[in-house]
Amino acid sequence: MIWLWIALVLLLQNSRGLVSASNYLIGLGSYDITGPAADVNMMGYANSEQITAGIHFRLRARTFIVAEPEGNRVVFVNLDACMASQIVTIKVIERLKARYGDLYTENNVAISGIHTHAGPGGYLQHVVYIVTSLGFVQQSFDVIVDGIEKSIIEAHENIRPGSLFVSNGELLDAGVNRSPSAYLNNPAAERGKYKYDVDKEMTLLKFVDDKWGPLGSFNWFATHGTSMSRTNSLISGDNKGAAARFMEDWFEQNGTEISYSSRLGADGIPRRVSNIIPNLHSSYHELLELAASFQSPPGGPADSNMSIARRVRAGQANKPGFVSAFCQSNCGDVSPNVIGAFCIDTGLPCDFNQSTCDGKNELCYGRGPGYPDEFESTRIIGERQFRKAVELFNKASEHLTGKVDYRHTNIDFSQLEVTLPREGEGGASEVVKTCSAAMGFAFAAGTTDGPGAFDFKQGDDKGNPFWKLVRNVLKTPDREQIDCQQPKPILLDTGEMKQPYDWAPSILPLQILRIGQLVILSVPGEFTTMAGRRLRDAVKTVLTSNGHGNVHVVIAGLTNTYSQYVTTFEEYQVQRYEGASTLYGPHTLSAYIQEFKKLASAIISGEAVEQGPQPPDLLDKQISLLTPVVLDGTSSGVNFGDVSFDVPKNSTFKKGDLVNVTFWSACPRNDLMTEGTFVLVEILHGKDTWVPAYDDDDFCLRFKWSRPSKLSTHSHATVEWRIPESTPTGVYRIRHFGASKSILGSIRHFTGSSSAFVVA
Known about the structure:
It contains 15 helices and 39 strands. Strands 1, 4, 5, 6, 8, 10, 11, 13 and 17 form a 9-stranded mixed sheet that branches. A 7-stranded antiparallel sheet has the order 7-2-3-35-36-32-30, with no helix packed on it. Strands 12, 31, 33, 34, 37, 38 and 39 form a 7-stranded mixed sheet that branches. Strand 19 and strand 20 form a beta hairpin. Helix 6 (238-254) packs across helix 9 and helix 12 (529-544) packs parallel to helix 15 (588-605).
């Protein structure tokens, strides 16, 4: 009997270890990085006319920290931004060092972007990436650096014992290859190893706190953040930001792992606890009478913190909030516009090799699943990723165990020697070099997600005499550079352009984070599908050949800095957009593989690696031509916050209807409403208590800002609310929060409300 009890005790202890053994310390955090919702060029499409003018939904920095109880720790930050920025990374690390000493450094902190093309630009330090934003935008930079720091602080303060689980699965309908002709130039034998011409696998990491249970998840999946088009002006996290919003709302409603379909609205978007409100009024006529008693009041002053206090997602004081991040991977040639690329004039498919329509690339556009509605395409691709993530989250059972480790180095990619095996010559090898950065003619052609202008075409390996003359005004590439970059015809010799400061990076950070069986490769660019496969396979071979059999290797794209694209050698020969944007020449991928294999070997052996040359800090050299806000004004007798277009008197709306209200407003750059909201939908409780129901972080609510002319001091805020099918019947109103600037520079906060209306 004694031995039986001993056996039972051991069995129970072992079972508990499988389910919730706290072999790690874990912490998660999240913070608003939405940025200026007016006047700032968006980062991604390089379209100078794409200027922020409102919010689709908010952007966030989401962080996880994993630590051994008495050992190493790693930090991973996922940004709802186009990409990471070298100067952002430098300044974040400086702040962390000032706060925590050597606990968090460039070695163990990774900062990655989801690649939305609908966020404010101007936060990178190299000239070529801030030309269309009229130089550096301090406000964009500050909100991202602040948000990253605050999300890391929150994760650090939330660190508790917990467990990690990993899960993988295929997601088939969220990405297609937008450069299939380049992919087909890869060896047939290599292509034959794969079922698809893009990666379909999502890898999800699940965090479980010993006390609170599931705390969040981070997943990696490759698809571009280009569901929103190059003409969109509303700040948006695109499909990955949408997926994160959906999953966080889904979990906060349920509080535990349940089926995907539970508590979803008819539109597929999760309902929130704050919206699951009992019908407090049984009589429709009673609702009409109540609504009629709340007419739009004049706009008036507001406390500067009111928009924060009234936001919907205020969190819970007694436990950490659920954090879900949808991270980017090797998305270089992967488009979310899964219907395909078509000519906007004829409706016919675009040319296969050059993505043109009658020789013109400007007419060839990819179509998302919600075509022609880009918001619907964003929702659908986001919802597909969300659905798969929930499935993986619920079934995650592989327990991560083992060391937490990391390696980081800086490499000068402008003249890096790379040793390559000679084909068919046994063990013979040759040494090649990377090149100083340069962009090819096909770069200016853009992609089917966002075509360029003029007469540039993808697949151009010759160039154009006229544009070469224009190029030479800026910088004429020398013969060595031309030969090194072959067959790329150089349009911009960015690596050699130094005025007024560096146009492109040359020193790049490479990093590996290891958490047990999970290995994260932090790459500072956009790897194509096959380039990513080769890198993952090379690192995995190093790890598995040293006894690490069960290893999950994921690529975290656009991490720590940005250096555009990385194709295979064979894809580079085709010179489509991705090849033309592979800065350091045809051997760029081989250089990455060589250096990452060194890092992987160092992880295995426990050896240190050289830090390499430090990237430059160019913050003091930045130039900004964006004009500041000088003054906000209204017409005579009008207050900021007054309604200029109200809902009809005694109006009733149905589920699915669109409600429009317009307010007299001021420039959103006066106060970014960080962790707050510019707009709010409120529901009436009882006779006089208004409760927040939706804010500008909700997919159904859009905040649009406009002014009658560029130099006008007058502006308006239009609020559009598409009433979800899950909305309870009741009395509602729409509110706007803003901040105006006087001629003396003082900032005054204001608020305004629409008349009340009924949703039946």
